[in-house]
Design goal:
- It is a single chain.
- With 139 residues, the chain is of the alpha+beta class.
- 16% of the residues lie in helices and 51% in strands.
- The protein starts with a helix and ends with a strand.
């Protein structure tokens, strides 16, 4: 009987140790950067272009409070009569930052091959609202 009690105790202790060691998760390293939506104050673009022209939209707005905030990219979505753009910034969390506000300062988005038609341009803001304007593409 003592042998079976010893085996049962061994299995129980081994099971507890296995459960504890697999449930312990190492901490994920701290992120070094994070993406965010930039608030766009205004855009400049021609309200009418011709098929075959390149649509050029210039963006203005505050990117961040210092050099650790930078413009990253545009996320875009197209539909039959919609051009939706989200202006993304990146905030570097682990580098030395220099003082001075960073702006979009006319960063230019270009789109080629827009078919003839009327389009709503939607610029997504950080609060998920949109800045809407119109574009007409003629032949």
């Amino acid at each position: 009987m003592k042998k079976s009690t010893f085996i049962l105790a061994f299995i129980t202790i081994f099971g507890i140790i296995a459960a504890i060691s697999t449930s312990c998760k190492k901490d994920d390293p701290a992120p070094t950067q994070e993406y965010y939506v930039i608030k766009v104050d205004s855009i400049i673009y021609p309200d009418t272009i011709t098929v075959g022209d390149t649509l050029k939209i210039k963006f203005y707005g505050l990117v961040g409070e210092n050099s650790c905030y930078q413009f990253a990219q545009w996320n875009n979505e197209f539909d039959v009569d919609l051009i939706q753009l989200t202006t993304m910034g990146i905030h570097y969390l682990t580098q030395e930052c220099y003082e001075g506000i960073t702006y979009l300062d006319g960063a230019e988005y270009q789109l080629r091959g827009v078919p003839k038609g009327s389009y709503t341009i939607k610029i997504v803001q950080p609060d998920n609202s949109t800045m809407d304007s119109q574009l007409y593409v003629k032949e």
